[in-house]
Design a protein that fits this description.
Elements: H1 36-68, H2 74-82, E1 92-96, H3 105-114, E2 123-126, E3 129-133, H4 140-156, H5 159-173, H6 179-188
Parallel strand pairs: 1-3
Antiparallel strand pairs: 2-3
Helix pairs in contact: 1-5, 4-5, 4-6
The chain binds zinc ion (ZN).
Zinc ion binds near residues 149 and 184.
């Protein structure tokens, strides 16, 4: 799985600029940065312990999106195949005012410090359930970005398999530098 290659973790020139409609993401400069005990060990342990619950939340929101969402349009289907989605027929899309996040308000504040500020998030991919912010839902780049995450879920084999890997990467390297996120940005921009 080459998306774990160390050379994909290096900071990009400016990954934020590609999502021109969103405010810039905040992420620490990792060039001389050590995650330390808090992000390197304690928070990953907390994520590990919380994983069954996060997985349950993700499964419920995915199920709701599959029930209420629309299937992919032809052009979106082609984009899904291009970025490696094996089952585009399973994908459903829903547009919402505000992207949902698990947990309580104080957890969202911590998440915002990692770069997961929900006001800055244009979309959320929960395997085959893709949730897009209504004002950004028509942008093919954002759709393609979330479809790359769908392909990543398929490669990881389960909701929790992907979410664990993704959250650990975000903790250690910051949202913008996580290898799975970098892959999504690289494959979704023309
Ligand atoms: Zn992403």
């Amino acid at each position: 799985m080459d998306y774990n290659r160390a050379d994909m973790i290096q900071p990009a020139a400016s990954p934020d600029k590609k999502l021109t409609q969103l405010p810039p993401m905040t992420s620490p400069d990792i060039s001389s940065w050590n995650p330390g005990p808090w992000r390197g060990w304690l928070l990953p342990a907390a994520v590990y312990v919380a994983m069954p619950w996060v997985g349950w939340w993700a499964w419920r929101v995915e199920r709701r999106t599959l029930r209420d969402g629309r299937p992919l349009f032809t052009s979106e289907w082609a984009a899904a195949v291009r970025v490696g989605v094996r089952h585009p027929e399973k994908v459903r899309i829903i547009a919402v005012e505000e992207i949902p996040m698990p947990g309580l308000g104080w957890m969202h504040l911590i998440a915002a410090r990692w770069g997961f500020d929900r006001r800055n998030i244009g979309g959320l991919c929960l395997r085959y359930g893709i949730i897009l912010r209504r004002d950004l839902a028509a942008q093919p780049v954002i759709m393609a970005h979330e479809l790359v995450h769908t392909a990543q879920y398929e490669r990881h084999g389960s909701l929790t398999g992907f979410l664990r890997a993704y959250l650990f990467q975000c903790l250690r390297h910051g949202y913008c530098n996580a290898a799975l996120e970098r892959e999504a940005v690289a494959k979704s921009t023309p």
